[in-house]
Design goal:
The protein is α/β, with parallel strands linked by helices and about 325 residues long. The protein folds into 2 domains: about 250 residues, Aminopeptidase (3-Layer(aba) Sandwich); about 55 residues, Beta Barrel (OB fold (Dihydrolipoamide Acetyltransferase, E2P)). Helix content is about 25%, strand content about 30%. The protein contains 7 helices and 16 strands. The strands form 2 sheets. A 13-stranded mixed sheet has the order 1-2-3-5-4-6-9-7-8-10-16-15-12, with helices on both faces. Strands 11-13-14 form a 3-stranded antiparallel sheet, with no helix packed on it. Strand 13 and strand 14 form a beta hairpin. Helix 4 crosses helix 6. The protein is globular. The chain starts with a helix and ends in an 8-residue tail after the last strand. The structure holds the ligand O=C(O)CCC(=O)N[C@@H](CCC(=O)O)C(=O)O and zinc ion (ZN). Zinc ion (ZN) binds next to loops. Transforms N(2)-succinylglutamate into succinate and glutamate. It catalyses: N-succinyl-L-glutamate + H2O = L-glutamate + succinate. InterPro entries: AspA/AstE_fam, AstE_AspA_cat, Aste_AspA_hybrid_dom, SuccinylGlu_desuccinylase.
Length: about 325
């Protein structure tokens, strides 16, 4: 069943809703939401949420989670931790597009009152996460929301830490370094993404993980993601993840968010500029008919997720400053 989970989700016709095997039980709680409960919970187990396809055209994370579920189904991986696997935007996944009406990854807020299919899906996903963490309240909560980026990147694999007053534990960064993440970006304010939801409302170890560039199914470089798959398997098995020195990663903090305020908006650099490209102080980055010009001030800043085509009022780019690696000598 688990190895056909993507097909079942896309067809919308699950043959069975739950099952019990020797090593684990599973329950389909909702379309695209499956929970795996180990027969024997490991001592180091965390309550693990792995989500993918919050943007429907980001296929590498779906393939990666498919590999994980196949390993469990084949008996190669014995679950040792409760695991909630979620596919975010199923209609967008079917259509191979980022979203249908609005960006699902801006809607994860308990006060969300907007009507519509994507807001309804955000409410359903938030409720599933709440119920899962409540069922496993004795375990540390963890949420990896897996994505791929629209553009090329100077660091193809990078982690975003949602805004929080509590710093990220050094061990969490060290795990991501061992899993092949090449950079980290700490958000400077609430952003109402799915990983932010778990961090903000559940104090989970939560990250958005960018795992390369958007590509159609079958065109993703899963070899580059082998260390990340190993981390997902270790967490699902309830094991102790490998750690590596944080100096392997480049660290950044967001200092400014550029929003598109009007139709008359453009970015002042080439469309193929990779994520994390640095711009010197004084450089004009964006022009908006309503908001005016945005220029780099103070220190060189690195542009991340530039996208002039976003909805009016939405984030069109982040500007980030380089910081020291946490735990590096001298810190
Ligand atoms: O490449 C892009 O422009 C967007 C890739 C993407 O979907 N990124 C996430 C990041 C979430 C966060 O800011 O934590 C998003 O934009 O939702
Ligand atoms: Zn995404």
């Amino acid at each position: 069943m688990l190895d056909q989970w993507l097909d079942i989700t896309l067809d919308g016709t699950p043959p069975v809703r739950s099952g019990v095997l020797a090593a684990y039980g599973y329950t389909l709680h909702a379309p695209g939401v499956v929970e795996i409960i180990p027969a024997k919970q490991a001592a180091n187990a965390r309550a693990c949420v792995f989500s993918a396809a919050v943007h429907g055209n980001e296929t590498a994370p779906v393939e990666l989670i498919g590999e994980l579920l196949c390993a469990i189904e084949a008996g190669v991986l014995r679950p040792g931790a409760p695991l909630l696997v979620m596919l975010g935007n199923i209609p967008a996944l079917r259509a191979g597009v980022r979203y249908i009406d609005t960006n699902l990854n801006r809607l994860f807020h308990r006060g969300l009152a907007t009507p519509g299919d994507e807001p309804d899906r955000a409410r359903a996903l938030m409720a599933q996460v709440d119920a899962f963490y409540a069922r496993h309240a004795a375990l540390p909560p963890l949420h990896y929301d897996l994505h791929t980026a629209i553009r090329q990147s100077r660091y193809p694999r990078f982690a975003l830490a949602p805004f929080s007053n509590a710093p990220v534990c050094l061990a969490h960064w060290r795990r991501l370094a061992a899993a092949g993440m090449q950079a980290a970006l700490c958000q400077h304010r609430h952003s109402w993404t799915f990983s932010h939801y778990s961090r903000h409302y559940h104090a989970a170890e939560a990250f958005t993980l960018e795992l390369g560039q958007v590509a159609p199914f079958g065109h993703n470089d899963l070899d580059a993601l082998a260390p990340m798959l190993a981390l997902l398997k270790t967490l699902a098995g309830g094991g102790t993840p490998a750690e590596a020195c944080t100096e392997r990663m480049a660290f950044f903090r967001v200092v400014q968010e550029i929003r598109r305020e009007s139709d008359d908006f453009h970015l002042c650099f080439a469309d193929d500029t990779p994520n994390f490209t640095a711009f010197a102080p004084g450089t004009r980055i964006a022009h908006d008919g309503q908001g005016g010009d945005t220029r780099v001030s103070g220190e060189p800043l690195h542009v991340v997720f530039p996208n002039a085509q976003v909805e009016i009022g939405a984030r069109a780019a982040l500007l980030a400053a380089r910081t020291m690696a946490p735990g590096a000598p001298g810190k």
